[in-house]
Amino acid sequence: MEVETEVQNQNIDPEAISRTPDGTTATINRAQKVKVFGEAAREGLEEEEKKMKATSSKKFQKPTLGQNVRIKIPDIDRAKMDPRSIIAIITDIKEEEFCELATKLGKLKVLYTRN
Q1: Does residue 9 share a domain with residue 54?
Q2: Nearest partner of 71 among 87, 83, 59, judged by Cα
Q3: Which of 3, 33, 70, 103 has an alpha carbon within 20 to 30 A of 43's alpha carbon?
């Protein structure tokens, strides 16, 4: 309640007041607040990334050389009578994450991940 009375008496923006660990109030300018919130958001996204990678690792098995995989063809890239997917074989694994794939007609230009 002390913060509210200080703000009312001194006409200070209520969003610019913050409590420090020792219980006193400090004025924080807008740039500092943006920086603090940005850092907190980045940390939250990094934690979420770790959770998503852990979930993906549990859900999908690690690729092995010679394993058959199915690649879905986007609706835009196929005609009505074309197959919805193609079968490919893993020919090379790069950086433990990206797979080089080959079909009957040759190697694919793009590297794929396991999900």
Answers
A1: yes
A2: 87
A3: 3
